[in-house]
Amino acid sequence: MLKVHFTEADLAKVTIAEDADPMWELLMSSYRIRRPEGEPLFGRWRRGSRSAVPESGRLLMSAVPPYGYCPDFLTPAGARTIGEGVSAVLETPSPTLAADIAELTAQGTRVQPWLRRLADGEPRELRRLGTALHDYYRQCVAPDWAAVRNAVARDRRRLRTNLDRGGPQLLLSTLHPDITWTPPVLRVRFPIEQELHLNGRGLRLIPAFFAHGMPTTYKDPGLPPALVYSISHARFDRDAEPGPSLAALLGHTRARVLMTTAITRCNTTELAELTGISPATASQHASVLRASGLITSARSGKSQIHEITPLGLAIIRAS
């Protein structure tokens, strides 16, 4: 679990990213290419992007393990364009590069020779990394950037509405299914135990299109505090439509409900919104799927959070 500790001053300084963050989207998309999660939503994009990754982009992949720690310097704060983001990476001080790459080693990652040279301050390797970032973004992220921005904008409107209606308390209470607000601590489902004390710096919320599963943040507590989380995708791509065999097995609506839980952990209300059915109908379908062992449901406050099981994923893949 990640515990984010707020003061009264921090509550007044909660901010929402003004747009989709190109560096975080680049990083998260590199995970989507290599991880199996979210197949109904990202499957078509993943298959197309795997073949589109340029040779220089493979250099980038060697700096970003598919799971676990990613060097903080690859996602500089506040970049509005890919150009600004890459420039910020290229301006990373040598001690920071060395510290982040040392952290990779400490986490058990096999560090490639070029990264060791980068940690030693070789300018050529930093330029190669900049080229890799630009090339990967151009081939794998830029073609869908308009759709990414639009989807993130929808979630930003949701955040602003809740902030206007109930201030930061309501905003933090309705942020994400994996996040629980118990003042003065924001508790986040997280792969490790980590504490983040804001100490009056506030918190920047970054909704991310290519994020999936648990939210994330920087490892270094000295960086500007940020919390990156997955948005609820309001529409499916064509791969998210149940195939005829799955629809025949479960019924079209129940199959859509199952596929939605494969895309994101969500409560019953969100499940209804994502599938275009009523909350009562969503609850009924979730009950049947849970009784069949295809999803699990866990209580979080007043909500039930639904998540697909390995059996549910296996049925989707087989169908």
Class from helix and strand fractions: alpha/beta
**DSSP strand count:** 10
Distance between the termini: 35 Å
- Judging from the principal axes of the Cα atoms, what is the shape? globular
Radius of gyration: 20 Å
Strand content range = 5-15%
- Characterize the biggest β-sheet: 4 strands, mixed
Uncertain runs: 234-239
The pLDDT mean sits at: 89
With strands numbered from the N-terminus, the spatial order across the biggest sheet is 3-4-1-5
Distinct helical segment count: 14
Q: Assembly state here?
A: single chain
User: Which percent range fits the helix content?
Assistant: 40-55%
Report on the architecture of this protein.
- This protein is an alpha/beta fold and 319 residues long.
- It has helices at residues 8-11, 22-34, 39-52, 55-63, 82-90, 94-106, 113-119, 123-141, 145-173, 244-250, 252-263, 268-275, 279-291, 310-318, and strands at residues 2-5, 14-16, 179-182, 185-188, 194-197, 203-208, 226-230, 266-267, 295-300, 303-308.
- It has a four-stranded mixed β-sheet with strand order 3-4-1-5. A three-stranded parallel β-sheet has the order 2-6-7. Strands 8-10-9 form a three-stranded antiparallel β-sheet.
- The two termini are 35 Å apart.
- The model is unreliable at 234-239 (pLDDT under 50).
